[in-house]
Specification:
Chain lengths: 253, 405
């Protein structure tokens, strides 16, 4: 298959200055991701994976290095331009779901479309409904986050990330707040999206989660120390979670 | 983002905290309500004065002796020229703009008759006086030209005098004594009420100036000459014309001062209008302070809201909101709150003014202009006091905002 590069960084560094000490959070990251890959970035805390995710997610600027994302070189972009990139090319899924409270699932999913500046005509409601149906919550659209289980909330968050049809789905510890059974469901959903062609980047410290991807990148002290592709069969397994096989993974309640 | 979406989002987050929103709005409600009531009282007083000014007469011009110079050194009473009947006649004869002219001779005196006696002012005037003052008769008639020429002892009573000497009675045809001279009452005027400064305009009697000068007082000086024009447009021209006629009549040299004053009724009223305008402004200024306090309340709550919703701001930024979107959202929230408060305040202000005028009998005026100004003001308060918190929200770093607990 022809390599279709969706994202590439070269010599990415990030230095935080805290008083007189400089913290080198990233020390030269060269990373290339093809369209349709499903990747896990792993590393202990302090390894720089959050910093990397913030830069990939256009929430932060690198100190040096180049970053190319789906046709756009992201050096020297203004705050506003970065906001527009986040809106159109990146879908975020957070550990803590980060849904707006007292706002229905549908309205949460509509939100990114309200900030769309591409001037394309979008049927906001219809697109949001489709995204919710895609994550299996077609019957929960009018529910507010406090009426939904953790797994359902995370699926609303995934629908919100999907709704703008981003170039890359960035998930930061997406199963960190979920029990093992629900984690399986959510990871299965990511695998489904991957199989439909979505580029998925998981950031995790759990090796179980990492092993349901095709490629694992390990960071330590701001550098990539391992970048290994996993066998296809392994990736297709829904990980070796401890969840008993008898439990129905579709349970919502 | 579309405007309607913005307002919808703002309304949603305002409604999430109903109690807090209501209390915050209360500041604006009270502020706007107070401004409206205060302005209503002030404008009520102004309109009352305007009404009283209108009772003075229609398009009235007053000529008085003495200099009216405002700047520089006045030579005081010495600089005045006496007014004469000739002046009055000359104005009547020569002026193109003036349609009615009357000299006025005053005399304080006792009028005896009917139920007793009454001290009042006798005004010696001409037949035009009734036209100038636009004063209708209650009983009888005003005196006419022949009575004026023949210095007849006839008299028209002001309403107050008639009420005191002849209560509940039509005195036309009866006789009163003035300085031991019997005078026939030929009419009673309709009441005009008080002037702005509280003088009773009806505590007066009128007689031909010829009669007053020759028979009812030893005093023949003319205190003022009143004139009027058919239309208010002619007043400035008429004033200039009267001035020219007077200067000619008194042979005043080109560079000398007039020595007399020509004013119209608005000039007369200006001082009192000025006073109430100052009062209205003062009342509005005091009331505005409460609006200011309300605005500070909004700012306070918006700052709390920004802190509380830091995470929400982070989420919105992560999914693509620009700083400006966040700024607008919070600004719209504070404007919606203040305008809503303003609208309620207008309602309360209107109700308050009408209750107040019923309780106290004060005249209050609420105009569409007041509403527009009050609305604009409350929106302005929302923008002014909402801007700082909104800017603070917009300047948040998305990463830190997302981490915020």
């Amino acid at each position: 298959m022809e390599h279709d590069i969706v994202m590439r960084t070269q010599g990415l560094t990030k230095v935080y200055t805290m008083g007189k000490t400089e913290v080198h959070a990233l020390q030269g990251i060269d990373l290339t991701i093809d369209r349709g890959e499903m990747i896990a970035i792993v590393g202990a805390s302090g390894s720089g994976k959050s910093t990397l995710m913030n830069i990939i997610g256009c929430l932060d600027y690198p100190t040096s290095g180049t970053y190319y994302l789906d046709g756009v070189h992201l050096e020297n972009l203004s705050r506003n331009e970065l906001a527009d990139i986040r809106n159109s090319k990146i879908g975020f899924v957070f550990q803590g779901f980060n849904l707006l409270s007292r706002t229905t699932a549908l309205e949460n999913v509509e939100l990114p479309l309200l900030y769309d500046r591409s001037k394309r005509k979008i049927a906001i409601r219809k697109t949001a409904e489709e995204a919710l149906e895609r994550v299996g919550l077609g019957d929960r659209m009018d529910h507010e986050p406090n009426e939904l289980s953790g797994g359902q909330q995370q699926r609303v968050a995934i629908a919100r990330a999907l709704v703008t049809n981003p170039s890359i789905l960035l998930a930061d510890e997406p199963t960190g707040n979920l029990d093992s059974k629900t984690s399986v469901e959510v990871l299965t959903l990511f695998q489904e999206l991957h199989s439909q062609g979505m580029t998925v980047l998981l950031i995790t410290h759990e090796s179980d989660v990492a092993h349901c991807t095709q490629r694992i990148i390990e960071l330590r002290d701001g550098k990539i120390i391992h970048d290994k592709h996993i066998q296809q069969e392994m990736a297709d397994m829904t990980t070796s979670t401890e969840a008993p096989a008898s439990l129905d993974p579709d349970l919502d309640s | 983002m579309k405007g309607s979406t913005l307002i919808k989002i703002a309304s949603q987050s305002i409604l999430k905290n109903k109690m807090r929103t209501m209390l915050t709005m209360l500041g604006i409600v009270i502020g706007v309500g107070a401004v409206i009531v205060m302005v209503a009282i002030g404008q009520g007083a102004q309109s009352q004065i305007q009404e009283q000014i209108n009772t003075l007469g229609t398009n009235m011009i007053v000529v008085t002796p003495g200099s009216s110079r405002q700047g520089g050194v006045s030579r005081g009473a010495q600089s005045y020229n006496r007014l004469t009947i000739k002046d009055s006649e000359k104005i009547k004869r020569e002026s193109l703009f003036v349609s009615a002219v009357s000299p006025v001779v005053f005399s304080r005196t006792q009028v005896i008759g009917g139920q007793g006696n009454w001290r009042t002012t006798i005004n010696g005037v001409s037949t035009d006086y009734q036209i100038i003052r636009n004063w209708d008769m209650k009983y009888g008639r005003f005196f006419d030209q022949s009575e004026l020429r023949q210095m007849r002892r006839v008299m028209v009573l002001g309403h107050t005098v008639a009420e005191n000497l002849f209560p509940d009675e039509d005195p036309v045809g009866l006789t009163v004594q003035v300085r031991n001279v019997p005078v026939e009452i030929i009419g009673v005027l309709e009441p005009k009420g008080q002037t702005a400064s509280g003088n009773d305009q009806d505590d007066v009697v009128f007689a031909p100036y010829t009669t007053v000068q020759t028979r009812l007082s030893g005093w023949s000086r003319i205190f003022q000459i009143l004139a009027s024009t058919p239309s208010s447009r002619d007043i400035p021209a008429a004033q200039e014309e009267i001035r020219a006629i007077m200067r000619e009549s008194h042979g005043i040299s080109r560079f000398a001062e007039d020595g007399f004053t020509v004013r119209n009724q608005n000039d007369l009223a200006e001082a009192e209008q000025g006073t109430t305008e100052v009062m209205t402004l003062l009342l509005a200024a005091i009331a505005s302070i409460s609006l200011l306090v309300g605005g500070i309340g909004i700012m306070n709550i918006m700052l709390v809201s920004v802190t509380e919703r830091t995470r929400e701001i982070g989420i919105r930024m992560a999914i693509g909101a620009r700083g400006r979107d966040v700024l607008t959202q919070f600004l719209v929230e504070s404007i919606v709150m203040s305008v809503l408060g303003g609208l309620i305040g207008i309602g309360i202000g209107f109700a308050g003014s009408s209750i107040l005028s019923q309780l106290t009998g004060w005249n209050t005026v609420t105009s569409p202009t007041t509403i527009m100004i009050a609305l604009a003001f409350s929106a302005g308060v929302g923008i002014f006091f909402g801007f700082y918190p909104a800017r603070k929200a917009a300047a948040l770093n998305p990463i830190e905002a997302l981490r915020h607990e």
